[in-house]
Each structure stands twice: as C-alpha cells, then as structure tokens.
Specification:
homohexamer; five-stranded mixed sheet; 9 strands; four-stranded antiparallel sheet; alpha+beta
C-alpha cells in the first residue's frame, strides 16, 4: 500500500475528523462534524407525535426519520437549491432513506414512546463522503439526545452506528474517499456498522467495472479499520455529555 | 436446510421464472417476466438524442436510464397512483436509480452512439423481488434491443446482468424472497451480478438486527446459486432472438 | 360500404376482442381486455371508506372513481411517464373523468354502502380506442367484483355499460377506429351505452370539419351495431363468474 | 311546454345575453359576455411564436389554445383558487380542452401564420353554462381579433361557432340551464355548432339515468333553436367592429 | 410642480377612481374598483371556520386572509396563468401577504368570531398600482361585509385603510404612478394608512438609486394628500350601504 | 431610554456581531455572520451566464439574485424543510426578493459583464433579524467576491449596503430586535441603507396598531445609529481581504 493519494494519506488512513457538539441553540442535540473537507450539520429534534401511518396501523412506540440536504454553495460548481426547484432530487431521496434506515437500527423504537425524531443532516461543505459523515454525526446526535431525554433505565438508544466509504481507485482499495477520489473510483462502497462490529448496511456499486468477491472482502476489511477509529471518536464525546 | 418455506420451496430454491418476449408491439424489445407471483413488464426504447447534461458536458456516446413504476392494483392493498399524487415516492426513485446504474454496467456507453435508451419497468403484479425481476428483465430486453439495432461488430452490449434477492428469516438464509418472507426478513439483500460472476451492486440492509460478515458471505453464496440459473434462462432466450 | 380499411375490416366490423378475467392476483376483480392491438388492464378495488367530500356533505352510500394511465412503452413513440413529469396530462384527466362518470351510471351508489371503488385502467399497448376499451373492461370488472362482494339481493350493480368509437374517414362512417384511422378521422365519436340500449355518454368531435345531424345519426347507428356484439361478449363472461 | 322554470322562462327560451366588446385595454380583442347570471371575460391575445411541438414537427401555420379559469368568488360557496392549490382541477382541464378544440374549428390554422392565439376565458360570476358562454364569447373575440389583424383576403377566420347547454329536468327537455337546473338535470348536454348549422362538438352525459336516442334528438332540436339566436347576436356585433 | 406627466396630471393628482359596489352575485360584499386604467375585482367571503394553525394554537377569534391574482390578459404583453404554471410567482405572494397584513389591521380579529374572511383581489386590467387599488378595494369590501353580517355593537371592523403609490421620476416626487411611470421610477413607494392618519405599512424601494430621508418625507407627504381623497370616496360609499 | 430589554441591552444597542470570512471552500467569497443568536451562512457564487429573460430582452451586463433558506433545526420548534414540502413558503419568497433587490443597488449591473451572481443566505440558527443579517452578510460577500474577480478599475461593486431591524415594544423604540422582542413588537421595521447614508429599502409594518409619522422618524434615527456600527465592521473586514 505504498500508492500515493491525492492528499498524501495512506490507503488505509481516514481523513481528520472533528466534532463540534451542540453547535445549534434550539435542537435537543446537534453537532457540526468535519471529515476532512466535508462539513455536515446534524441535529436531533423530537416531535411529540408519530407519523399518520403509524397511527393508522396502531404500531406501538415512536419513529426515527432523516432529512438530508446540501446547501447550494457546498459544492465546487454551485448546485441547485431543491426548495427552489420544487422537489428533492433522486440522490437526496436515496441518501436520506439510507440514513433513516441505519439510525432506526440504533434505537429501540418501541421504547422511544410516542414521538418522532427528526435527524436533519445538512451538508455545509462537500468533499466526498457526505452520507457517511451524516450517519456518523446523526448517530452521535441521536445518542446524545436520548441520553438527555430519557433516564438511563428507559434510554431507547441501543448502540452507536457509524459509516465510512471505501473504494477502488486504479485497482487499489482505499479508505474514506475524498471527492476527487470518489469520482475516479471503479468501485464505490458505503459500509454502515454497529460499534460491536456488525453490519447495518452494505452498499457497493461498480462504477467502472464489476468486482470480484475477493475485492468485496478487502473493501470491508478496510472499512472496519476506519470504523474502529470513528467509534472511538464518537464514544469519547458521548461519555462526557 | 430442511426449514419449510411459505410456498414449500427449499431455502436455496428460486421461484419459477417465465419470460414472454416481445409482449408489446411498439418498443424495439420488450418482455413480461414472471418470477413466481411477481410480474414485470420491461421495455427498451431508443430515443435518438442524449440528455441535456451530456450535451452540455460533451460526453461522447449515449446513455441508459430506467423508469420504474408499480400499477395501483399490483399490491395487496391498492397503492396510490404516483401520477395522480404528483410525484414518485422515495422507494420508486431509489429502485429506478439502482436499475439504471446496474444496466449501464452492461453496455459500452460510448459504442451506443448518440441516443438514450429508456428501460421501462412496470410492475403489473407484485409478490416481492420486483426490483430484481426488473433488472433481470431489463437486461434481457436491452440485450435483445442491441442485437436488433447494431451489427455484431458494433453491438455495445457487453454482458448480461441479473439480480436476485436473498435474506435471513428466523435466522435462516433464504434465496429469492416472496412478499411475505420479505416482510419478516431480518436481513434483506439484493445482489446484481454479471454473467461472468462479478458483482455489480451489493445492497444489504439489516431490517431487524445487524448481521455478521459470515452471514454476508452465506447470503452472497446463496445468491450465486440462484443467479446461475437465471443467467441460463436469459441466455437461452437471447440465443434464439 | 365496400371501402377497404387499413386492416381489411368492413366499415361496420369490430376488431377482435379478447378478455382475460382475473389477470391479477390482488384486486377483487381484474381483467386484461384486448381490442385489436389495444390492451388495457382494468381492476376493481374496494376501499372501505368514502371520499372526504362525501363525508362532509353526508351523502349516503358509496362512490365509484376511475384512474387511467398509459405505460410509456404503450405508444409508437415512447410517451412520457406522468409520475415522473409530476402531473397527469389533460388527456388523461379528461379520459378518467369520462370513465368514472360512465361507470357510476352502472351502479346504485347508495346500495354500494360506505366504500369507494377504484377502477384502474392501465393501457399496456395502444392502438386507438383506449378509453372505450377501458370503459368496456371496467364495466365487466365492476360487475364481477359486485357479484363477488354482494349477495344477489344486495348487488348494487344495475346494468352493464360498454363503449365503442366511431368516426368518419374520407367521408365514410366507420366503426371501432384503430390508431391510424383515428388520426385521419374527420369526426371522432365515443358512444357509451347501457346493455338495454340507452345512451350514457355521447362525445362527438369534429377534427377536420363540422358534421351534419344526419352524420351524427349514422355514426350512432354504427356504434349500436358494435355495442351489441360487445355486450354479448361481456354477458358471456359475466354469466360464468 | 307549459312547465314552469325556476326563473319563469319557457323551456325553449334562452337567458338574456349581453356582450360588452373591448372590455379590456391590452388584448387585441376582448369582451365581457353575460348569459343570465353567468359572466365571462374572454380575450384573444396573439403571441408571435408557435408551441414547441409544432416547431419540432414542422407543422406549418399557427395554433389556437384556450385557458379557462373561475375566480374564487364566482361561485355560491367560494371555490379554491387553482393558482394557490398548485394545479388546475380536472373540470378546468376538461373545459379548456373543449373550448380550444371548438375554436380551432373556427379558423384556418395554416392561414394564421406563425403565431399562437391565446383565448382566455375567465368566469367572473357563475350561474351555469360557463363553458358555453366561454365558447360563444371566445368565438366572437377571435373573429374580432382576426378582422383587426388580417386583411379581408388573408383573414384566417372561417366561421362563427357558438355553444349552448340543454338538459332534461323532471323528464322535460330544457334550453340553456341555469345552475340550479343544471344540478337537478337527469341529462346534461353541450352542443357546439357553426353558424351554418353543422356540429362541432356534441357532449351529452346521463347524470341520473341513461337516455334514449329520441331524447338525444329532441335535445339537439332545442339547442338549434337557441343557437340561431346566439349567432344573430354575435353577427350583429361582429358587423360593426 | 409644473412637470408634465404622461397623462397630463399634476404631480400631486390622483387618477380618477370609480367603485362599483356589489358587482358579483355570490359573495357577501364585492366591488369593482377602477383607478385610472387599473381595474380590480375585490370580494369578501366568509368561511365559518378558522385555519388549522389557529385551531392548533387555540388562538381565539377569526382570521382575515387575502389572495391576489392577475388575469393573463390584464397586462400589455399577456402574462402566464399561474394556475397553469402550477405556482404563484414571488410577486404575487409578496403582494397578497402585504394586503392580508394591512387588512388585519382594519378589524378586531377576536370580535370576528370563529371564521375566516377571504379577500380575493383579482386584477382585470393593469396599469400600475394594482396592490394599492386592491387594498383600497378590499378595505371597503370588508367594511361592507362586516356591516351586513354583524350588528353595529358587534361589528369587528375598526377603521378603513387605504393605499396609494408614490415615486420619484426624473427627480420629481409624484403621486399614484401609472404603469409607464412606475417602470421609470427611481424610487417606488407604497403607503398604507388608516382613515385617522396613521401608518399601517411603509414600503419604499430604491429602483435606480438610494434616496435620502428628506425624499422619504416628501413622498409620504404626497401620499397623505392622495389618501385623504381616497378615504372620502370610501366613506361616501360605505355610508349608504 | 432606561427600559430594560430581555437580554439587558440598551434600547439603542446592537447585539454582538461576528463575521467569519471564507467559511466555505468552494464559493468565490463566503462568510458566517452571527448577530447575537442569529447565524447566517452567506456565499457569493458566479455563474458565467445570465438569466433567460435577460437574454431574450437583450439587457446588457449581468444579474444579481438571492436565495434564502432556513435550516429546519434553526428555529425553536423545528420548521418544515421547504425542499421536502415541495415549495418555498411566502415568507421565504418575500425575504429573498428583498435581499436580491437590495444587493442589486450595491453593484453596477452593466459592469458585472455577462454573469449571474447567486447570493445564498442560509440561516443556521435563528434568533430574529435573519433577513437583516443576510443583507449585511451578502453585501460583504459580494464586495469581497467582486474585489477578487475584477481589477480595481473594473470592479462593479459600488457601495456597501447593510440592514438592521427596529421596532416598538411596549411603546418604546428599540434597535436590532431578537426573536422574543420581534414577536411582541407593535411595529416592526427593516431599514436597508448604503454606507453613505441613503435609503435602499424601508419596510415598516404595524403589527399591533398603526403608527404615527413621528414614530417612523424615531425608528429610522435608531436604525441609523446601528447601521453606522455595522458599516464599520464590514469596512474593517473588507479592507484586509
């Protein structure tokens, strides 16, 4: 793994991560997470009612949902404001569904009680890996919000989850792709895991050419290396809240 | 694997597949694919121009895109007509993006020449696995359409792709889930492969509880068993067109 | 009437009609109706509540409504998917209102009880006369669904309705226009009748030149010839359900 | 025909019609037409280009299109503003398509030259028959605008058209229904004719019970009585412009 | 102030105002107001319920809201129909919010009781100052409707409001701008006042160059001159209702 | 002015302002402006083409436009994401039009050359005065971007603008209202000025009761006190860029 990367990192090296807790004044928990040049504001807000479909189907407990957005000035070439164009694009929809699914794995929905947790993930500055940074950030925001809202005995938060991207560039597996790497990747994969090392989501996509199962395994190995460090970061912050 | 399934199949057994080629009169190639109780109409139509963004960016060659839909009467409880509610739901958007990405792996976009291929996948009757049936069907429709439109030397179609779902139900890995199984699955995975055995997309989602890497590997093994049979089916039909 | 038609039919000859009952697994009644090259899937689904406006106005009984759609690959040149473009076109709206009105004539809405019947008419393959095939199919699907849901004494279904197109081409009145005839027609008319021979809807449109009342009467005469045969077809199937 | 009507008219009697030419300052021709309590503002505006589809298909000549609207305060109970609810309702769409089709019969589209004529029909006050008043008004506005824009030799306007409603109430055919009659009608029909007495559109709808062909003929007879008077009114005004 | 204006008026001279009360048959009060070439139909309609947000927040009393529209043929070059394009433009939204806010100042919302008053302002013909004409008209319509609906003791109407535009053209302050003046104005201001001479809204916008506070004061002086005459007009009509 | 304010400020005292230049990596100029508890991200991005209407009308030069948004977690009770609800609310539309108009006063549009400047103002955290903070921030971002893009001789930036809110609470005029003050204000006014002391926009709204011209003048006096300090802050930063 002596290949040189665009930003000088080793192939199995994460970008620098910083997390700024309680960045906002209103939500129960919020944070600004920076993974290299990618900055995402995440917030966990409780609404004391459940979605209509839960009411209709009499599902007990609560719900966790995510909304993802990208500020127009977050990208190299300014991207269109979705509120102005009148709908969320396919990429946005796909990402927020992934984040919502992943975070519902982190809590016991029934223990949440009758409420909806909105996890807002807004990308302020984008340099690749925005959905992974969103999951990692939203997981910590949700954990913190639950810690504040529930007693230890009734805390519905089960386990931290986190996500990282991996990919193959010029035939070499690499961890935590930045935007330029992401664009050149032959294979692009996002791995969501629990702190105890189980898989929550695996999404691997051949961008240039199909890949073998051996490659799949190498990529997940690489992701596990990064995720251990990310969980350590989350854990450290969660402990002192 | 002596567990009994809802419909009496073995755990590694596909549902019955039938493919009715050229089901429609207008598109260059079309088919009705039935995978058990799931019926999907797929069609490949050529439009002799490329999307605006390709023109702007002067990308050479053509494009392949997919649109997916579900007829309101296709589901157990009638589902809402998206054309009437004024937008495609998140699930629809996610699925059609997956199908489009997968099928673009099957062709050499540059060799397509200046055109857009629309792959329409419309679910007539739904019993689980509609996105996989759509990919399998669209792959064959696209292969057939290319065979008819291009000479052998200029045929941009590279390789058949196909998809199958696998999942874990009551702790047991199973192949090709029907709707009732899909709803009870702890893990739900869709695997898209090429005929030569490489991965195009891997999408695994923990629905009830996170899963280990060992489980991931068992599931992909199971998918490979099913996909070999599906490719045989596709191949047989493609040869005689 | 020795004029030769595009497809060799006599001027007062219907296209071949086939009806495939219970084509779908979920709705209470469904069918695939083929009128020459036009194929329409129709389904009757019951929803155990009434529209909001009926609740507000305390209208007793139930409601019958229709939704019409055309698959993108159903037409010669692929047509746009309405779900993707975000709204139903004017033609779609006009047609589904016509079908809904016509079918409400076929039932005693008060005897329906508190429910809404959705009649979904989806055109799989289009070769002219799709709204007429939809009405004929939806009428039979609704009759069959009522027969299954209600006792004979309480059956709210009053009478079969059916529809056929007629038109004037090169000055000659013709029955049951196919697409190419429809496009060349000087006058285009859709007649919806009851089995007992009364009119439910008459919609005649001059496309090229206005027409006399004598012409109007010739066209309705022609329609009656076709409708008798269509009612025989419907009746035959309905008897054995 | 000694039946008494809600407003004391005879069964074959029109409501009072007044037409106020050039009611607006900007369009080439405009008018306020009042048919009893129904008031419609119609305007004919020329746009010096053709719709995109005409350009694409290289259809020679111009186009005539209609947009219909109802002011919120025009109805007994205030109706919703379509601009605020974000789309035109089905009834609006159906009506404006009817008006557009009818008026295209009145002109030689090719002689129009490269332009689009917008016929705006806005209902200020509604008491039944708004689509008929719109057609009658738009026909005169279009005739006047053509007279002003083209030389006599090049005038593309072919013939005046006009429309009137007829219906059956308590078994009695009646001409030119007001709102209260319209709501109680068993059959509701709109007839669009040319000044020379030919049919442009016939739209008859059974609202309560299907109707016989004899009834259809009685209704058209009645419409012809009314239309003669309406054409006289239009003609009188058109002569002096 | 010897500058000559486009239409020969003095700089401090209003255009001719006429008000045609009860122009429509259905709403509780309506009128057609003409200010020079600008004609606006305004209507006050009561709906016997309050908006959902008032219910949720348990705000006592009622609500007053405004909807503003411009007919397509009202402008020099035909403007797009907002109902057809699927949304209200920014200008429309801004104007109807201003009118709603201004008119809520005219009534005691709590004394209104549980109801919503819709003030519809539809511009039939536009020659500048449409928002001011709308406010002046809606104020009188609302006053008249309240006088008819409530006893003198319970009348929630507090005070007439009215609006006028002022602006600076070629350095000269002018009252009540017509369209051509409005387009050339360096500063454009709309002043909403109460009959007793207090300010309800002040909206001044530099269109060409910023303006001094001295100019601001001159403009408001000018507006007061015009508003006194407008209030006299309103008062005269209101007295005799 | 010995009245005590919610946060202990004097009536003529601004909240603390901090400006963090070049907060984002992609746009030509960007900043995070904090006015007390209100935080707004503003960015100036150049697009090398003009809007379609400028092209059509052959207006020389460029354009400046603004888009304003509020993150869902920015407010006390989470507000709805406009991208998800499918349209920008009336308040958003009104605000972004105000900002756009104000900033176009700051530049010579013709000297901009053929381009569009997008000023994105996204509220991260809201505590009143978001539109004023947006204008102040966008003005500086635009000045900085112009300084970087153009030579001093060709710089189209004319003059800094800034905005501040003033209002009357319990009868007392106060400068720079926070959210709680804003909600209780009887009069609410936003003043946009140029650095040289001229007015760009004056928007005063009576929220509880109409106000006199004397009050209007007191409020503008107060605004001028605050704006001088704000211009000093902008100037200081602009000098060192």
């Amino acid at each position: 793994m002596s290949v040189s990367r665009i930003d000088g990192r080793a192939c199995d090296q994460l970008r620098n991560i910083t997390i700024n807790m309680d960045y906002l004044s209103h939500p129960l928990a919020s944070l600004l997470i920076c993974c290299g040049g990618t900055k995402v504001l995440t917030a966990a807000s409780f609404d004391e009612k459940v979605p209509q479909w839960m009411k209709n189907q009499k599902v007990p407990g609560g719900w966790v949902t995510c909304e993802y957005g990208m500020l127009p000035a977050a990208t190299g070439e300014r991207c269109k404001r979705e509120a102005a164009s009148g709908k969320q694009g396919g990429r946005t929809v796909e990402i927020q569904r992934l984040i919502g699914r992943s975070l519902r794995m982190a809590v016991d929905l029934e223990k949440l009680g009758e409420c909806t947790v909105y996890l807002d993930c807004d990308v302020i500055d984008a340099d690749g890996g925005t959905r992974c940074a969103s999951i990692t950030g939203a997981s910590l925001a949700l954990a913190a919000a639950c810690k504040r809202r529930y007693s230890a005995a009734e805390n519905p938060f089960k386990e931290l989850v986190a996500a990282v991207s991996v990919g193959i560039i010029d035939g070499v597996p690499m961890l935590d792709l930045c935007y330029d790497e992401d664009h050149r990747a032959e294979v692009d994969m996002n791995i969501v895991m629990t702190e105890s090392g189980n898989l929550v989501e695996v999404q691997g996509t051949a961008e240039g050419a199909p890949f073998s199962r051996a490659r799949l395994n190498e990529l997940i190995d690489l992701a596990e290396i990064g995720l251990k460090q990310i969980f350590a970061k989350q854990r450290e912050i969660l402990e002192i809240i």
